[in-house]
Amino acid sequence: MADDRETFHSEAPDQSDGGKRPVERMGGSQSPEDAPARSGPPTIWLLVLLGILLLMVWQYFKSPKNHGNTVDYSFFLEQLEEGNVKEVEIIAPDLIGTWVKIPENPEKKDNAKAPDLVEKFNTVISSLEDRTLIDELHAKGVPMSEQNQTVGLMGQVLIYLFPLLIILAVFFFFMRRSADPFSSGMFGSFVRSPAKRFRPTENRTTFDDVAGMEHAKRELQEVVEFLKDPAKFQRLGAQIPKGVLLNGSPGTGKTLMARATAGEADVPFYSINGSEFIQMFVGVGASRVRDMFRTAKENAPSILFIDEIDAVGRVRGAGLGGGHDEREQTLNQILSEMDGFQQSEAVIVIAATNRPDVLDPALLRPGRFDRHVAVDLPTREGRLGILKVHSRKVPLADDVKLEEVAAGTIGLAGADLRNLVNEAALNATREGRDAVTREDFDVARDRVLMGAKREEVLSPHEKQMTAYHEAGHALLAWLLPDVDSVHKVTIIPRGRALGVTQLLPEEERYSIGERRLHSELVVMLGGRAADKLVFDEYSAGAEDDLKRATGLARRMVGHWGMSEVIGPAAFRNSEDHPFLGKEIHESRQFSEETARIIDQEIQRFLNSAHERATEMLSSQRDKLDRIAQGLLENEMLGKDELTELIGPATERSYATSSADGGNGQASGA
Q: How far apart are CA 73 and CA 123, in angstroms?
């Protein structure tokens, strides 16, 4: 399958702190510097363990069983009758005493190895004994003492409850150890906010470390000035927005911009992800919101940053969930806390999202997130600045011109550019170079845009079909003046494709017209047309081409009003993202007859593009064969090689008709 044109986005990194910024949990106003040192178990636990040990030692020595030999009660009575008992002490039901003369152990008669008796002995008084023993002891003149070992009611209760108390104490101790270290109870890790606090350091992030987002910097500059000097605005009665919503594509640097705002204002910065509010227990999210806002107010001026707020801030009452689930309770608490801000409280809430269209309207009204900042893809100057930031520690060869790299990376976000520099450095390392060269950047760009090479061996026929398929894409893009120019075409398997035709735009584009969109459809279907023209059959390699072409044609007809039959109307399908819950209850807003006409128009657009592609390839068959033969011989052709094979490309002319609409991102792959 051929991929002609792709747009990539990913999350923007933090270029400045290198991951060295100290982090702490938010739970409460206590900071790590103020928290007591944890050098071991608490003193009270040491005392308890020592007390238990002393009690066990005392019980051991106090037990009658540890006084001399244990003898039978009958043997004791025999020795008492013979007058061989010197003194006794009765600790019912035990009796301990001392012999006048150590008798011989009666067990030696049956066992010669039986131990000898010692001076002291102990025995158990028979349960049938009455005062006979005491009278006999008095008659023999044996001194006698008695201890009362009866345990009271409270003592019995403590004896039976002591093991249970020990188990509960151990459980409580380990629950505290496993909980949040800055929490105050067994369940502190649930109700405390998991937000991390980033303290300002010498290596903090500022606006100087952020490249390519001048518009967002200007929007946030007033927030910085308010945090530095709130009295300046309050003197004239001005009210700075308490909530700022950053929205933009993934990888454009929303989190980085929030960190830079906190670093520029030199205030505490609390960061949390929207999904961290939600737990299995109902009400925990609301408790975490209360704890987070309370701590931010105690440390004002400060900034609260909620990343991916759409995880908790989606429209309420939509989808399968009711109005009382955990997510909606958490959202209600956020709304309540933001309403509770006083003008004297210097706390700014910054949130980031990729889907502002699914947020609850209550979040976006004035008084909450009433300032919306769009973080767009960087311009050419912005890309150059981002490349300079990421290549600070990368040695560059003399042939590397970052201006040229920036010009050839239109549509890439900050995270993509960081990945580009890293891949170039990795390739230079694999090649054993001391500096990153232009060739390394070319290899890295191919890897980022087209994917990594796959070690697959195609059969001669498969290789030939792939060559003609990619030659069809490349030749049409080479001839049509209003599409992006061909940068490279290859039949080396990359990513999930057997071959790739890479098109690179030569200028920034923020709007696109109907004429160019139809030309893009022709290029997308060029591979399928070449298959039918050369081999008289269609191949499965056109699956991705058909999917992308159908999606583009559907947007042209149903979203942008580019069909004369349909007219200036937009028809949106409700099954785009059913997992969001918002579209489930939305019925289709047009009839079956209209849907049939839309499908017919889509087919007409695609059939017309396919016929045009077939006609152009038939008239330029010799050039198609030369490109395919060059791919079979070299496996990859660049712009210079294509020029040698089929002559210079048609001069690019991006003239648009009066039916311009949409934008470059919407029409892309």
A: 6
Which residues are CB-neighbours of 338 under 8 A, at least 6 positions away? Answer: 242, 243, 349, 367, 368
Kindly give the residue spans of alpha helices, DSSP state H, lying in 299-342: 326-339
Catalytic residue among 470, 514, 520, 601: 470
One-letter amino acid for residue 109 of the chain = K
Task: Confirm whether 520 is a catalytic residue.
Answer: no
* Separation of alpha carbons 428 and 423, rounded Å: 9
Residue 203 dihedral angles phi and psi, to the nearest 5°: -105, 30
Residue at token pair 């819950």: 581
Closest to 642 measured CA to CA, from 480, 520, 485, 447:
485
Under 8 Å CB-to-CB from 530, ≥6 apart: which residues? 468, 469, 471, 472, 617, 624
**Mean pLDDT of the residues in the chain:** 75
CB 92 within 8 Å of CB 125 = yes
Q: What is the arithmetic mean of pLDDT over 590-616?
A: 92
The answer to whether the peptide bond before residue 505 is cis (omega within 30 degrees of 0) is no
3-state secondary structure of 647: coil
Residue 576 phi, psi (nearest 5): -65, -50
Token duo for residue 639? 């712009």
Note the pLDDT of residue 62.
63
CA distance 633 to 643: 16
Rounded Cα gap, residues 302 and 224, in angstroms: 10
Q: Residue with structure tokens 């069909």? A: 563
Q: Is 142 exposed, middle or buried, given 0-12, 13-18 or 19+ CB atoms closer than 10 A? A: middle
363, with CB counted inside 10 A (0-12, 13-18, 19+), is buried
pLDDT in tens, 491-512: 888 877 888 888 888 777 778 8
pLDDT reading at 147 higher than 90: no
- Radius of gyration, CA atoms only, the chain: 42
